[in-house]
Each structure stands twice: as C-alpha cells, then as structure tokens.
Amino acid sequence: MFEGFTLDRVQAGDVTLRVRYGGAGSPVVLLHGHPRTHTTWYQVAPALAAAGHTVVCPDTRGYGQSNKPASTEDHTPYSKRTMAADVVALMRALGHETFAVVGHDRGSQVAYRTALDHPDAVSKLVVIDGVPTVEALDRCDVRFASEWWHWFFFAQTENPAERVICADPETWYNAWTANGPAELGPENHADFLAAIRNPATVHAMIEDYRAGLGPDPRADAADRAAGRRIECPMLVLWSTKDDMEQLYGDPLEVWRPWCPHVAGHGIESTHHVAEQAPQALVDSLRKFL
C-alpha cells in the first residue's frame, strides 16, 4: 500500500499521530471514519498524489496507532474541535499553512469543524456521508434512532459499549463478512483488524461518539446561532446505497444554510466509498480540488 509514501509519527499539539504522506503539489488531508484507520485511503491517496497533490493521511487521535489521550467527564479530548486543532497542527508540522480537507463519516465531522474553526487554514472542504451533528440530532426520528441506535448506545457510560465490543470485536465490526479482506484489501484489512482488537482504540473510538452527543452539537449550535458559516468552496458527496437520502432528503439542502458555496452529488456505493468505489471518488475529488 501507499507506494512512494512516507510512514511517520508526527507531533501535532498534545498528541502524536501516525501519518502517511506523499506526492507534491497543493496539499490535501484525508480524514477517515469509524472504525477505520488512514489505510482506508490506500486506493485514493496515490491517485490524488499522481494528479499533483501532496496527500496527508493521518490516523485521527484515538484511532489506529495514533495517541489515545485520557478522556474527561465531558469528553472534550475527543471533541471534533480538539481533533480539528490536531489537523491544523499536523499540517503545519509538515509545512502546510493552507490545505484542502476531505473527511468521511466521523472524519467528515472533523473536516467541517476544521473549516469552521480555522477558516484561514482551509482552502477547500469535502464532506463524504455526513451532515452537521446538530442537524442530524435535530432530525432524529424513529427511523434515525432505529438505524443509528449505536450513536446512543455508545454514549452510555453506566454500561459501556466497550465491554460488548471487546468481547468479540471481529463479529461486532463484521471483520470477516461485509468488512472482510476481499472488500477492504488484505493490507488495509490487517490494519483494521489490529485497530479493533485493541481495547484502548475501541475505548477512544467510543469517546469520539460520546463527544458527538456533548461538546460537538453544542459547538455546532453556537455557530448556527452566531450565523457562522463555512467560507471556502465545499463539496458534499454521499453514497447512494447508504441511507443519507432516506434520512435527510437532499443532503445539499441540509448543508446550504452552513455554506453558500456548497455543491455535490451522490456516488453509487455503499457506506465505505473509498474502498468500494475508489475511482468514482477520485474522479470527483480531482475535479473539485
């Protein structure tokens, strides 16, 4: 995987992140979702590098082999605001003052928070399979609660989800069925397995979701109330075989109050588009970036 890329550990603020980077040209950082690591981009990153970009792929804090700081009662160490600050610190450590940000799933929440909190740093924003957290919660109905019940299960601290997941992580995460080596690619699958088998990583990933029902929607709500908007050009992509359209209708309509420059379209894929429809994703990213 990632031929020609450098695998490194880079200090980013108060954490050290595992990161791969390669290519030359305008910089772009790719942020993975749950429960993936940076290796989810193994087909996308080299294609973007070949198209003339410096491509940076970190494991976000807590995920994969990046640091897993102790959390707090309010889960702020795993808030998207904290993770966004990591992204800016990482890119500056690598010599990039401004850059494009692409995020998928949980990584999409880090991506748009980076654009909101650090507008001078983010030149372009791509969100894949995501809407603002506060907008998702505002629209929570029976269908959402039925299909996305894990958001609320993960948030519990009295009977923590970590106990259930760590009892059999490979079954929980469909590691030999929907997320098997044929679907993910053998090296990417091996990295995924190592992550989900590590109880410390599982705990950190769940803290990400706990922050998603605490500091994250509060930050979104404060921005919305203040009229704060995403000022850079923005592309929204979604997997047509996932449930984005069923839950939200046209995802672009959800994003328009947040960004006057938003455009986007669906890609024929199930949820993990970087692994299941990499060429279509690369084509969309190259055109936008």
Average pLDDT over all residues: 97
Assign the CATH topology.
Answer: Rossmann fold
Order of strands in the sheet with most strands: 1-2-4-3-5-6-7-8
* Number of helical stretches of at least 4 residues: 16
Q: Residue share in helices?
A: 40-55%
The unreliable regions are none
Architecture (CATH level 2) name: 3-Layer(aba) Sandwich
CATH class call: Alpha Beta
Secondary-structure class: alpha/beta
Distance between the termini: 23 Å
Q: Which H/E pattern describes the elements? A: EEEHEHEHEHHHHHHHHHEHHEHH
Shape, principal axes of CA atoms: globular
| Biggest sheet character | 8 strands, mixed
Count of separate structural domains: 1
Radius of gyration: 17 Å
CATH superfamily: Alpha/Beta hydrolase fold, catalytic domain
**Beta strands, count:** 8
Determine the strand fraction and express it as a percent band.
15-25%
Q: Could you describe the 3D structure shown?
A:
With 289 residues, the protein is α/β, with parallel strands linked by helices. It has helices spanning 44-50, 80-93, 106-117, 133-138, 142-147, 150-155, 161-167, 169-172, 181-184, 186-196, 199-211, 215-226, 244-248, 251-255, 273-276, 278-288; strands at residues 6-12, 15-22, 26-31, 53-58, 99-104, 122-128, 234-239, 262-267. The chain has an eight-stranded mixed β-sheet with strand order 1-2-4-3-5-6-7-8. A hairpin with a 2-residue loop joins strand 1 (6-12) and strand 2 (15-22). The two termini are 23 Å apart. GO terms for molecular function: hydrolase activity. Keywords: Hydrolase.
